[in-house]
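Suppose you are handed a protein chain with no further information: no name, no annotation, nothing but its sequence. What can you learn? This example shows the usual starting point.
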Amino acid sequence: MIPGVSARRRFSDLNEQEVLALAISSEEDDGRIYRSYAQMLRDDFPDTAKVFDGMAEEEDGHRHALIELHRKRFGDVIPLIRREHVAGYYARRPVWLVENLGLDRTREEAAAMEHDAERFYLKAAARSQDADTRKLLGDLAAAESHHRDRADALEEEHLGEDAREREDRTAKRQFVLTWVQPGLAGLMDGSVSTLAPIFATAFATQDTWTTFQVGLAASIGAGISMGFTEAASDDGELSGRGSPLKRGIASGVMTALGGLGHALPYLIPDFLTATVIAFVVVFVELWAIVWMQTRYMETPFFRATFQVVLGGALVFAAGILIGSG
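A reasonable first move is to predict its three-dimensional structure. Written in structure tokens, the prediction is:
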């Protein structure tokens, strides 16, 4: 490759055979993506997996039709050209990334795939000056539009209202068990357990930098401890709580953030200003925990308020009293 020269070609420089070859490889890639989605979802969301199986079969059908068209016009040898070889061609999100985004996001990603392909072919057809190329691109856009219609039909066939509600409940439960529950436990631990050492140090020394260092050490240490504890406590196979790595990350990060929230204000040199801001942050943290318990864990509001706010206030007061003494 010559330095400074892009290895990617412009779409406008492709001839009709290359455009057709690009469409064939794109259809093949999309079929493989849909099969990966189906395999990823089959255990927990079998009805949605059937939809993606059907969409993969549709992609295969269009790929075979495109191959036949290529054979008729240009022969059996299909040029090797893929989407990454063409500048400006629509990209696909990696399957491993979509896997972590949840059921609804996976469905949205599939819809976006079909929309991106149709829009690209329509724009390319509008720019084409060759009648045959314009017709070819228009046919490809129509094929992608048909994919979306067929996807809707597959959803009606395999994903009725009852099945969708059942899978949505399963997805919500999985999200709560894997991310919300360990994250909430971490936020509670980080926010409440660090109150006493941070404010005891603040009122004992009235030194903002020392207070920040203590808060930073307590928050990071608690985050590491909670993260490893959560990851090692349950592999998720029997409990259905999901990946221990994800749970460990959720717990560890939220624990550290819970402590850092009221430690960071002590980067402000003025002790009174830093302390007032830290008080406000503590108030916000405790009510955020109440909201999360009410929203995701379905804990009654007054019970959550009593548990969190009262418990946090007691620890907070203990830290001030110890530091002031």
